[in-house]
Amino acid sequence: MKFITGSPEKGLGLRELCSGALDGQKVEVHGAVHALRRLGGIVFLTVRLRDGQLQCVCDPGVQPAGLCEECTLRVQGRIRAEERAPGGRELAAESVEILSRPAAPMPIPVSKRKLNLSLDTELSLRPVELRSQRERAVFRIQACLSRAFREYLTGQGFTEIHTPKIVHAGAEGGSNIFRLDYFGHKAFLAQSPQFYKQTMVGVFERVFEVGPVFRAEKHSTPRHLNEYTSLDFEMGYIRSFRELMDMEVGFLSYAMELLRRECARELELLQVVLPKADAIPEVPFEQAKRLAAEKYGRPIRDPYDLEPEEEHNIGRYFQEEYGADFVFVTHYPSKKRPFYAMDDPEDPRYTLSFDLLFRGMEVTTGGQRIHDYQTQVDKMRARGMDPAEFESYLMIHKHGMPPHGGLGIGLERLTARLCGLDNVRHACLFPRDRSRLEP
Amino acid sequence: MKFITGSPEKGLGLRELCSGALDGQKVEVHGAVHALRRLGGIVFLTVRLRDGQLQCVCDPGVQPAGLCEECTLRVQGRIRAEERAPGGRELAAESVEILSRPAAPMPIPVSKRKLNLSLDTELSLRPVELRSQRERAVFRIQACLSRAFREYLTGQGFTEIHTPKIVHAGAEGGSNIFRLDYFGHKAFLAQSPQFYKQTMVGVFERVFEVGPVFRAEKHSTPRHLNEYTSLDFEMGYIRSFRELMDMEVGFLSYAMELLRRECARELELLQVVLPKADAIPEVPFEQAKRLAAEKYGRPIRDPYDLEPEEEHNIGRYFQEEYGADFVFVTHYPSKKRPFYAMDDPEDPRYTLSFDLLFRGMEVTTGGQRIHDYQTQVDKMRARGMDPAEFESYLMIHKHGMPPHGGLGIGLERLTARLCGLDNVRHACLFPRDRSRLEP
């Protein structure tokens, strides 16, 4: 009988190859031909490795026939220092084996520094456009952000949960919900894991989930996606809703450190300046609105919510006055927050809630939730809702819940603001919008 | 201006409290009253902390009025060694503050060791039934499994991806796909991230995703869910499909170590014996079928697939003959594998694919994929498919892909087999089946 014993080869990435430890040694690497230049008889290859690009020099004797861009290769050779090569190292090839060949040349010059495609062309060609260096950097950074979220919260005693995306009722209300036929029953796609993460606070006290959420937004804007990845947490036994913001600041600081350590090349390539995330100003909604209106001379039109331009101006204000990239706007009006939001006991027109703005755009919504059964039932009735329709959700309030709250962070928005992308679609591998279901 | 500076309190979990380091010290803990016993004038509380249960002794002087089960508390007191208490420690309360009270007593005695509810009752009461010790143990173990998957693969150079769940075509074909109205267009819920993870091999070489997948299975069995969490990876530049199995064995070994370290109490509570995962036998499909049929006298009815009872018998065979909890069944017949599966060049009636059986049930399906454009187009045509309908998927083959493959692991099945649960629904927080959309 044969046994599989689980010692997979890790293979060499750019990080190991450029560390200096392998200089002068014979190594084997594999990757795709990202770019190919001929100079005299010599071929210079840029080989796309899993974590970056390696220059590879092939003398005439080692060039296989039919070498072209997007061939995939296995190359043996020696690593040597070479100042002019990206990363300071190059591979002097001693043998080159072609593993596969493309059937057609690339539709776009993916090795160019900037592609300057229209958004629509870019997204239509996404499966191969993502092979470009800039796109790879964006999504390596994104992976680092969700990793940071989980690592940090796990360290803070949170338990990961997986909650259903097919649901019998929406958590956020409103019309922006996708409907589904579920074996002849009406069902919906979850707009957030709200009810479930609150439920799990009664079980594990502190929980998080990284998963897709679905919003049937009918308008097309640079800040909305119809499906996005939400970084959610919920925690019990809070003394104040400020503890939620504390936890988010803790996460953001951890994430910036992890990015510095793991994504230095990507940050440099995209010229990202990491924001200061370890002390974030907080300002009440009314005051934020007024400060921005006064400084930039824009009249307040909607007293209950922030318009995108107001978010922009509030961000600008705190950047100019305090050098802050982030700002917590707190105490949103009750009428614009969901039925489960806890009202401020000092002024119940407002809630114990907040948004986090990052460089002028909301990236987080959070707040304390109602934990008392009667208070929750009363608030639902006052809004014309029927508590009987939420029986399984109200079960947790009925049978005891600690004071608690939580938040949801839009991963794509966070990535886009961090990387300076002007449309959130650029921060989503395969975005879904009103007119795009493919690829 | 006020600033949030991000030093959240972590609070004390059972792990810290029972470590011995805090013996004799004054501490503050918070949690819900899981059980309450009166003995003379003394109240013994079992307090449900985020990671376990702590015994708490309240003398008459510190008992607040109205103390009952599922009250949530903040307790100050001294930690002391007490042999008879679970975990060997108890808290001698010096002050007890009630933070919230339930509006009604629990519908089930959640502190009992076993609840013996019908599956339907259990799932209907899920929001509070999950507060029981056994359920908490199952889902702490589950969280540890998905954490292990990500940590191990990150260490092996994989990049995490987030791919869309609303899609324009199914990857697995067949009728078990949910349909959706997407702004007037026909759309589906993803049966797997297959096309997208393959696409991302062209970008990052090695990728993984932990996310929901949706299967509109019309039959109700103890092994199927209509929505489940899939642990997916896909990797390029493989020399053989055995490298995929190697990677899975590596993950499983890592996971067992992490469980040993992080979930010792939970494993003990559920009396889980961790399987040996570091050397897993592999056996070709035909041979596995024959061995089990011969040994247990069950005739082979479907030569192209494994029936559940055959999986059970194959598992039993390898348990009896080799003491193995796992077995890789390889080389499934081509006609039962999807159009993207790579046929075995030595005998194209079979594929370079495998399932992993764990204690007699399939928990993983994987295999090498076709990377050559013409081979893929030909196989689609031979199956009566129209390549034009898969244009954006075939883009990756057309413009070059390395040899690659991957697998998907059902997280709930893995959890259920590990914990000895007889129905996969027990390993899902809020299961979805034909008749259940709620809670």
How is this fold's topology laid out?
The structure is a homodimer of 439-residue chains.
Chain A: E1 2-4, H1 14-17, E2 26-39, E3 42-49, E4 52-58, E5 72-81, E6 89-100, H2 119-124, H3 126-129, H4 133-155, E7 159-160, E8 166-167, E9 179-182, E10 185-189, H5 194-204, E11 206-214, E12 227-236, H6 242-262, H7 264-269, E13 280-284, H8 285-296, H9 308-322, E14 326-330, E15 343-344, E16 347-351, E17 353-358, E18 361-369, H10 373-382, H11 391-398, E19 404-410, H12 411-419
Parallel strand pairs in A: 4-6, 7-11, 13-14
Antiparallel strand pairs in A: 2-3, 2-5, 3-4, 5-6, 8-10, 9-10, 11-12, 12-19, 14-17, 15-16, 17-18, 18-19
The biggest beta sheet of chain A, please?
8 strands, mixed
CATH classification, class level of the largest domain in chain A: Alpha Beta
User: Count of helices of chain A?
Assistant: 12
Poorly predicted segments of chain A: none
What gyration radius of chain A follows from the Cα positions, in whole Å?
26 Å
How far is the N terminus from the C terminus of chain A?
43 Å
Within the CATH hierarchy, at the fold level, what is the topology of the largest domain in chain A? BirA Bifunctional Protein, domain 2
Largest interface: A-B, 135 and 135 residues
Q: Mean pLDDT score of chain A, rounded? A: 96
Helix content of chain A: 25-40%
Oligomer: homodimer
- CATH hierarchy: architecture of the largest domain in chain A: 2-Layer Sandwich
Number of domains of chain A: 2
Which structural category fits the helices and strands of chain A? alpha+beta
Number of strands of chain A: 19
> What is the molecular shape of chain A?
elongated
Approximate strand percentage of chain A: 25-35%
Strand order of the largest sheet of chain A: 7-11-12-19-18-17-14-13
